Amino acid sequence: MSLYTITGAQLAFGHVALLDHADFSLEAGERVGLIGRNGAGKSSLLKIVADLSKPDDGLVTRQQGLTSVYVPQEPEFDTDDTVFDAVAAGLTHARALLDEYDAVANQLADEPEGAEHDALMSRMNTLQSSLDHSDAWNWSTRVATTLQQIGLNGEARVGSLSGGMQKRVALARALVVQPDVLLLDEPTNHLDFDGIRWLEDLLVSLRAGLLFITHDRAFLDRVATRIVELDRGRLLSYPGNFSAYQTRKAQQLEIEQVEAAKFDKLLAQEEVWIRKGVEARRTRSVGRIARLVEMRNERAERRNVLGNVKLDVGQGEKSGKIVAELTDVTKRYGARTVVDSFTATVMRGDKIGFVGPNGAGKTTLLKMILGELAPDEGTVRIGTNLQVAYFDQMRAQLDLEKSLADTISPGSEWVEVNGQKKHVMSYLGDFLFAPERARSPVKSLSGGERNRLLLARLFARPANVLVLDEPTNDLDIPTLELLEELLTEYDGTVLLVSHDRAFLDNVATSVIASEGGGKWREYVGGFTDWQIQRDRSQQMALDAQKEAGKDTAAAKDTAAAKDSSAGRNAPQRAVKLSFKEQRELDALPEKIAALEAEQKTIGAQLEDGSVFAKDAQEGTRLTERYAAIDEELLIALERWDELEKRRK
Description:
The protein is α/β, with parallel strands linked by helices.
């Protein structure tokens, strides 16, 4: 039996139908990812399920006693509250029942036998049953346990926490209720990579039904057991994760286009027939005329697939071959070292992703690369002819009182992109803004629409270096995919900060990652490549430590044995290498040099970036080979060191 069911739901804002006879159900244990374009009505549907609003029409049914908890995109807290109090606020109803139970118990102690006493006893029994059902007797322990599971300090003030930690507090406040249905609106907002992975693990382990909105495709792939798409007022269900949805959606759209073409062809034939001369009208079938009227109405009501954003970036003149060269740069803020002895070269055409926890110093490193912030130590050499365009995640560049048209092209009705003039209305239309909205103020736009407007403004200006700080926030999936395609084909340099793992995989040719303690390291490839290489490096370091521990223990044993036999045995000579080992030692320097040369050649190909555009499979193969050489080099160097020590 379904936990929750919507049948024939209708919801409209003005003339736009957000839900058009839509059906939806949620089964126990299901994890449903709700996707759709910005403005399609996803948040409205989530609020209907949360019982925070009602549809205009339709039937909504839910299991009796069902507990659902809704976590909005931007949770609100009293910043003076402790984390414990903020989480305990989720149990307000349970605590109120407990307070009432105590009050009734006190009244009973003073009330003599009689009708009033019986009424109080009846109320007390009802309250006890409710408290048992909601497990409210030990609410304080539940809060403490939830805080421990999520890794929160109950004594900290909410106002002192980062956005990511406040998101954890909101989730803890929801989970402490032990809901049957958990409703999440953009749960990955403000979370860094570690936070997102933590949330994925948490949600996958939950027994509650889950309905969530997100544009994070990697998150959908890991968490969702079913995808529901809100498309032109209809709710379309696809079993499986996001990858399975993409395959089935492509097939469905292809079938839909074929059927629509057949329908239009038949309608055109009927229109020709109805307009024929007197002879045709004499033999006209009443049923056929009725069918034609019905087809006309169906064609008028058919809503075609919504248009895609048309992205095109204004290409500036080419920058110098070297965009920036950093040599042993260090940056400190007080006693904290944000960047420690970092060296890197950014070449024209590089597409670099910056990854690390919130507050690691990604923005600081970006500013040093662009010459906007001087390092405390080391040198930064900036390239020539740089034309930099910024995308600000806080949208601080937007004047909320200005109209959309003035934001794109102040004082002019024309925009020039790549040498071609375009009317500002037409240009805004490319970003899915209707002409009648061109004079609306920026403050009237939603978060996703403001991001689209920022992209429109960014791409209208000639640039050869794009700096994108969280460009994927609030963008719907089709727009994300188009932005990826544009950046992949872009000839200039892209410096990208994002927590969208799929976006980094599809755009970045290299990743500069925080290693902790101000240390940064560059890896070839995207997010997944960085994870593989990082995990391999960590495992190799761990293995090396274990081997070192074994060698130390063996050395101690050997020393003890020598001490015990001192005076009884003659001093032993150093063990000589065998003929085979000597030959191996002689060949190792040449092998090491060959591996280093191969890695350097592959590195140059990967740095160029064009290999990924020409042959993605070859790019992947080279990336894997580059990482494998690291391991081979380490093994060869360790073996060389071991043989050299034995020869001495």
